[in-house]
Design brief:
single chain; 2 domains; 7-stranded mixed beta sheet; about 325 residues; Nucleotidyltransferase, domain 5; 13 strands; alpha/beta; about 20% strand
């Protein structure tokens, strides 16, 4: 039996979708998500699938990379997927590219608002453009979490995620509509003011040293200059689910650019990379992207990586 394992590892969680087929019939599971709990995502991955696959199962692992993943990390990934997960074939693609595939596009700009930071990535005709990418680590959901943890303290630490998901928002207009009442009817403790909630929301995209919207605008402007066309953009990642994020991005672009900009809709913002990875696995050229276990044993991870990466470097 053949199986496809599409994997998206982040600092907050490991997401995957396993699609298996037997006698021409495909069985697709929903995207599964497991928290890393501050553990190395690769070790979480190997623990998840240590006893998952029978020795006779033909597993293809499609690993979705961050845009600026260094070569040494890619080599380590190849080792883990073959040696620890037990894959028979391994393929890499970039999460930014497959996120665009999920919306039916192969060119565009991806604004990924994650836990450990915000990433801006440009893809042209399915090829990542490293010179039009940036990674911002002082912002993201972890920055919001940190401020809420400082204000709530240990006594009210259990409210951290509830406040973030239901009360925090991005943008001054959204912040004025915020409330101090939680979904269960409870009222926020006095140690966390409405101003603190608004500040926690703003830290998702802006810190003392970083403005994600400015960086996104800069990449957007440079991409127009290099490609001579206005690329669509997508806002995705778990952090993008916070109220006001999409509106803030759209308003920022409209403020600085007179030409129309097209936003791609992410049906499942947290899972766009996985959804697009499943689409990628169905195209005819996908098999050419794969390294099989025989090639891995013969050449090792370093040569496998250099021969199979699909970017402009």
């Amino acid at each position: 039996m053949e199986s496809l394992l599409a994997i998206d590892c982040g600092s907050w969680s490991v997401k995957y979708n396993r699609t298996s087929g037997s006698k021409g019939k495909a069985v697709e599971k929903i995207v599964q998500e497991f928290p890393t709990n501050d553990r190395d995502p690769l070790r979480v991955l190997s623990d998840l699938f240590r006893d998952e696959f029978p020795s006779d199962e033909n597993v293809t692992a499609l690993y979705l990379l961050d845009s600026l993943t260094p070569r040494r990390d890619r080599e380590e990934l190849v080792y883990y997927l073959f040696e620890k997960v037990g894959a028979k074939r391994v393929a890499f693609s970039y999460a930014a590219a497959t996120s665009l595939y999920s919306a039916g596009e192969n060119s565009g700009i991806c604004l990924d608002v994650g836990h450990s930071g915000v990433r801006v990535s440009t893809v042209l005709d399915s090829v990542l453009q490293p010179s039009l990418c940036c990674e911002l680590n002082s912002v993201g959901s972890h920055a919001t979490d940190r401020l809420l943890s400082e204000k709530l303290g240990m006594e009210f630490s259990h409210l951290n995620q509830t406040v973030k998901h239901h009360l925090c928002c991005v943008g001054e207009e959204e912040a004025t509509q915020s409330t101090r009442t939680l979904p269960d009817g409870a009222v926020l403790p006095d140690c966390l003011s409405s101003r603190d909630v608004a500040e926690a929301g703003s830290r998702l995209l802006v810190s003392e040293t970083t403005d994600s919207l400015f960086s996104f605008r800069n990449v957007y402007e440079n991409s127009v200059a290099e490609s001579s066309t206005v690329l669509p953009y997508m806002v995705c990642g778990g952090g993008s689910l916070m109220r006001g994020v999409n509106h803030a991005v759209k308003s920022h672009l409209q403020k600085y650019f007179t030409f129309p900009n097209r936003e791609l809709t992410a049906k499942s913002p947290s899972h766009t990379a996985i959804d697009g990875g499943l689409i990628l696995s169905q195209i005819s050229s996908f098999k050419q992207m794969c390294v099989d276990v025989e090639e891995y044993n013969e050449n090792g991870p370093a040569r496998c990586c250099s021969s199979k990466m699909i970017d402009s470097r």
